[in-house]
């Protein structure tokens, strides 16, 4: 009968439990909190047996497990320290390589600057030569154009002279002979200048 009451005790509020057992509300109620002597002795014996088993078999297993964990942590710490040292070595090598790369980059920049100066000088020389060629051709073309203009002017002067002479003389002169005379006259004028 005691077991069903325990089941009810868990589900029912304390005042209802006191009413079911017929306990007088005027009592102290301490006997509800204290276990019976037989239960107390059985609990102490069960605790001692469980403690003995834990101390005898579970304790060494727990100790071994803790030692393995400590050893694993120790090996992880050693591996981490070794990794840190390797990382420091790699970092110092990278710093050295970076310094070497900076020197190499400075050298390459200097070489590129020198090459650019050489290309610029060559380009300036080529441009100067092209400009000189253009000026020479322009002078040659100007001289040729002046010669053409002079030849055209001679031809016109000759034609005008002949036309004027025809009007003056009022007869037709031998045009070819007169052109030859004008050309020789103009040639004399040019050579006399």
Structure description:
The protein has 193 residues and is mainly alpha-helical. It has five helices and no strands. α4 crosses α5 (175-192). The longest helix has 133 residues, at 37-169. The radius of gyration is 64 Å and the shape is rod-shaped. The model is unreliable at 1-13 and 15-19 (pLDDT under 50).
- Strand count: 0
What helical percentage do the residues reach? Answer: over 70%
Q: Count the helices. How many? A: 5
Weakly predicted, low-confidence segments = 1-13, 15-19
Residue-averaged pLDDT: 81
Question: TL;DR of this structure?
Answer:
The protein is an all-alpha fold. It has helices spanning 2-11, 14-21, 30-33, 37-169, 175-192. It is built from 5 helices and no strands.
Can you tag this structure with a few keywords?
193 residues, mainly alpha, single chain
Blueprint of the fold:
Blueprint: H1 2-11, H2 14-21, H3 30-33, H4 37-169, H5 175-192
């Amino acid at each position: 009968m005691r077991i069903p009451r325990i089941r009810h005790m868990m589900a029912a509020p304390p005042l209802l439990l006191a009413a079911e057992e017929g306990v007088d509300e005027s009592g102290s109620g301490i006997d509800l909190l204290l276990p019976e002597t037989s239960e107390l002795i059985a609990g102490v014996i069960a605790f001692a047996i469980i403690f003995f088993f834990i101390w005898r078999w579970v304790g060494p297993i727990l100790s071994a497990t803790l030692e393995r964990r400590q050893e694993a942590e120790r090996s992880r710490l050693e591996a981490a320290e070794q990794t840190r040292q390797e990382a420091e070595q790699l970092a110092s090598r990278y710093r050295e390589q970076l310094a070497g790369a900076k020197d190499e980059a400075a050298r390459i920049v200097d070489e590129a600057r020198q090459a650019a100066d050489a290309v610029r000088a060559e380009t300036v020389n080529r441009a100067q030569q092209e400009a000189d060629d253009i000026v020479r051709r322009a002078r040659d073309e100007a001289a040729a154009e002046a010669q053409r203009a002079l030849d055209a002017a001679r031809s016109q002067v000759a034609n005008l002279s002949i036309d004027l002479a025809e009007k003056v003389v009022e007869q037709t002169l031998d045009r070819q002979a007169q052109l030859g005379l004008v050309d020789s006259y103009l040639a004399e004028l040019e050579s006399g200048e």
